[in-house]
## 1
Amino acid sequence: MDGSLPRRPDPAAVRHDWTLDEVEALFERPFMDLVFEAAQVHRRRFDPSAIQKAQLLSVKTGGCAENCGYCSQSASFDTGLKASKLMDAEAVIAEAKAARDGGADRFCMGAAWRELKDRDLPKLATMISGVKALGLETCATLGMLTPAQAAELKAAGLDFYNHNLDTGPEYYGEVVTTRTYQDRLDTLEYVRQAGMKTCCGGIVGMGETRRDRAGLLHALATMPAHPDSLPVNALVPVAGTPLGEKISREGELDPIEFVRTVAVARLVCPASVVRLSAGREGMTQELQALCFLAGANSIFVGGRLLTTPNPEEDEDAALFRALDLKPMIAPRAEV
Ligand code: SAM
Ligand code: DTB
Ligand code: SF4
């Protein structure tokens, strides 16, 4: 003993050895302490007033072979959604240009596929390289990939691949039965091997327990590399989906528990961009302010997510004014 005090671990350090009990214990902390610590960690890594604006586009809508119990686009449920085929690259690039001109820094292309088919790769490569050439950060979410497909997407200029774990491993079987947790982890591994960044998070408010929410964040924080981007979605209840119906009957998640989830995400993945994703429609400015304080630093902008509504531009402009926020422009690794 040299007489010096034991050093407290740095709360902003990236750790991969989180236990599930430790993550759950963060949720149990007094709310004020939890949010204060998350805000401190956030400031060590990011400008707390800078929020990245991302815009989504559904490039292929509906008719999906998976049975994700929350999703408007699954062919297993009657949600009244009209299915459509893969959009032409030119039309997607035009939408991306409009998004950029409207202030978006990142453009995410979503397709309602269980897995990507090789026949669609040439069109997707044209689409991705065209969006990238506009100077936007690119992200796509196209279902499961093979290692070779991941490499082709990377070569086309895709920066991020979104593939969510959605919930903790224990609750997964209540959410989807047409794929396994391991299927998701495998695709994420191929994405990393191809040299792309991972965008991986989940949905809260699907009837899961706090332990399940901790399980999701534990799974993310113990992956070989933390997700570079971590979307936290609040369930958008869609009529006709099993989970949308269940939540309409049983009531939505307590918003304070949502803020806790954002704060714990910030603490266990301190270097990740935490995205306040689906579910902002209907959230007050005050609730969103708490989420930003707790460490969220990105939102989706534009009046539509993939198939559901999102706050309109003027509403978000008012939010940015009220909270003195400024758009975050993400650093570009290479051109
Ligand atoms: N088919 C691909 C997949 O599942 O990976 C990409 C599209 S999927 C719609 C992208 C993500 O959106 C899902 O993983 C889920 O986390 C989120 N999502 C879908 N429907 C939602 C809803 N009703 N509320 C909240 N998040 C939702
Ligand atoms: C993510 O985690 N959330 C976004 C994005 N990744 C692709 C999608 C939200 C979709 C919400 C439901 C809908 O609009 O269909
Ligand atoms: Fe298909 Fe994705 Fe919807 Fe699941 S979340 S049904 S994989 S579009």
## 2
Amino acid sequence: MNEMELMMHLHLDNKRQGPGSTETTWLALDLARIDLTRSYRIADIGCGTGAQTIDLAQKLKGEIVAVDIFSEFLDKLKNRITCNELSADVKTLSASMDNLTFAKDEFDMIWSEGAVYNMGFRNGISYWKNFLKLGGILAVSELSWTTNSRPSELEDFWNGEYSEMDTVAGKMKVLEEAGYRVLAHFILPENCWTDNYYIPLLQSHNAFLEKFGNIDTARKIVDLDKQESDFYNKYKDFYSYGFYIAQKI
Ligand code: SAH
């Protein structure tokens, strides 16, 4: 089993696979300033088990295509679809975010929480723009520095983990350079990271290690999660996920 598959197993029973919350998904939707009485076609890319897909499907009309590379995550989402009152139809699609068979200009909105880093921010927002209508909305959350400078221990850690680590202003510049108008942005608050992400994640480590603890990579994943969580608690003033709401121009 490779690292990605192990990570999938670690995260499979959790509600979220990255920092986020219902409140911030709905805040991003408000900031997109779209008419909620209309029907839209939306893609939710890197949806995981679909926490934000369900939140969106409760507010929106039309169709949401929820995309993830792991069908195991999509099966969890399918369960949630049947258990919730939704105003939008949700379809699932197992595909890689950098190789999508959607039509040009197919979507009114592309949503992606905590996932675009898998293909890189610049790459992802540029590629997905092909599938957005002119004037369509991109709502994407992405790890970002929230201050202009930071302790070097922290800077070294995240630069080592993610080569596109940048400030909020830097991320907005990338969006502008890729042909978007940035309509709004905000920074995810602490509960998105702690209550909704690290706490349940660290709680799932024991069961994960019982199954996969004999694999080196599995133990490394667990150690890195703990290190990341410790870093977050120590340095949360310097980084978060930025949520960027932008329009294709
Ligand atoms: N949006 C969810 C999941 C975020 S975690 C949430 O916020 O809870 C990132 C997700 O991206 C995971 O579900 C992972 O399976 C998915 N992913 C990783 N690489 C991918 C790829 N190449 N194509 C599609 N999805 C991918």
## 3
Amino acid sequence: MSRFKFSVGPWNVHEGEDAFGPAVRKPISFESKVKKFKEIGMDAIQFHDDDAVPAMNSLTEDQIRKEAAGVKEMLDSEGLSAEFVAPRLWMDPHTADGGFTSNSKEDREFAIWRGLRSVDIAKELGCQKIVLWLAREGTLCQESKDPVTSVKRLVEGINAILAYDPDIKVLIEPKPNEPIDRSICPTIGHVIGLSYLTSAPERVGGLIESAHVILAGLDPASEIGYALASGKLWGVHLNDQNGMKYDQDKSFGVENLRQAFNQVMVLKKHNYGSSGEYIGLDVKAMRTQKQEVCYRHIQNSLEIFKLLEKKVDTFDTAYRDVCIEKRDYEALEFYTINHLLKG
Ligand code: GLO
Ligand code: MG
């Protein structure tokens, strides 16, 4: 029995469109996704602001809160919690040049408005976490934005969210590129550094996604360890990625099992989850997957995580220590691979 709690977002069951082709599966209603997530074994749902309150730009602040309260009732009736709300600052025409760091003052104000509405929605849904995946905060053309000004603008945006509610926590989800070319916050080190520039560093932390770390050419378990050592790992998006190419969001562990094993190891060993943090899965079904099996990637990721938990439990730490003592890391490496290969 896993001691972890798991979460997923409605965008993880999508219709299969990509940059070069249209949807290949039928849309599924939010309600039926939520029911299915519960059935699969999820404990919480991750939200974009407009997953909870569609077309929110045309609603008043009261209407937004009311709609969010309705979603909370639905979650309660399914026995699910909300993990976080993330303002979707990459879809709207106002965010073509980024949100908090846009060159347009009006568009920066729009981004902050969406950030504050995300706080309102989070409160209604009973959660304290705002995730900022900074999709377009960076440049496509380096000369278009001064890098110092951009960092200051990002800090201003985060400060506005922190000032709006004293209980809210901001989790930055770093990603080095895609859709932006040069991101302001490419890694968790940048996130942690940035947290100390804000008005409430103790309320600014990170959410690490395995694929984003691999896209930065780094190792997920090491990045997770760095954030844990800093007391700043408040969310994870586990998935997998075949090298440094487009963002793939593959099922957890399907590309690099040893790397996945080491992520589970560090999370378990250092008590991730003991303050209520979730194991979030940010996985996408392959485009080839048919309608009737379009949740398979979530089921697989959960199952692989749990199987790897068992591998962590049965990892012979006494033997590891002997190898360390003798400085025989070839032996340790062989043992690890052999352990993973055994049924
Ligand atoms: C994309 C991100 C995205 C975020 C989600 C929550 O690369 O991983 O899926 O995690 O929008 O903000
Ligand atoms: Mg993610």
